[in-house]
Amino acid sequence: MRRADRVNAPPDGVPDGTSHGESISRLLRAWRARVDARTVPELRWAQPRPGPRLSQAHVARLTGVSEGWYRALEAGRRQDFSESFLLRVAEALRLSEAETLTLFLAVCGRRPPAEPAAPREELPAGVRALLAQQVSYPAYLSDGAWNIVAANTLMGEWFPWVLRPGANLMRWTLLHPEAREQMLDWEDSSARVYLAMLRVASNSDPANTELRSLVREILAADADCRRIWERESDVVEHRDGDVFRLRLPYHGNEEVRVTSHVLLPIQRPDLRFVFITPYDG
């Protein structure tokens, strides 16, 4: 347990009028008040036996600090509170994800440390439903390496390649012969932009071995891509709002102009939700 610090804090439950953290003080008191101390296993053998009210002393005991240190937090005093301590407070007070975020932002101005990402096999039902309900426009989901995760029916009709096993937007656009026929002004409107996107992505996530392997594959396989990569230094993060000129079998090989829209699903921010609409400009 941390040595008790000399903190001139107000009595338990009394807000500190000189503090800049009055709002988080109120929230912490409310969050503590809703926890029944009798339901906390770690306090089961505490003496004296706890009643229904979880006290500041109880929270200090649960988080491994002095009562004065926890009282300073609840009073809204500016201290060097560590992330591990704030996480223990969140656990002791049984805070939700949103409440933990509020605690961190109020106390130290940053988000809680991210937990290691768990493997994600299934799309959330809401994301899958949103994709399926796009019946007017082509739409698809891609991951950080531009693998096609899912596509709606119209996307498969416009671009049958998305239905092939292992479909990848970058690989098709930059290496497949049909892309140079279907995406008009291929080098200027597609190749240069997609390679500029790969520059950003490969520098943003150097640990992504799949992405780095994709870049090597594209540069090794195509002389035009190597030339553009070596001579140019443009960087582009996404193609939201860009206009494409297409000539697809779906449209009887007549030229069409479309706009791409890129969204990040909040349930799966590792994915891009992209849909394509007619260009009215």
From TrEMBL:
One Pfam family of this chain: MLTR_LBD
What the entry lists under InterPro entries is as follows:
Cro/C1-type_HTH (IPR001387), Lambda_DNA-bd_dom_sf (IPR010982), MLTR_LBD (IPR041413)
All copies of the HTH cro/C1-type domain together span 54-101
Coiled-coil residue windows: none
Q: Where is this region: Disordered?
A: 1-21
Put simply, this protein is called Helix-turn-helix transcriptional regulator
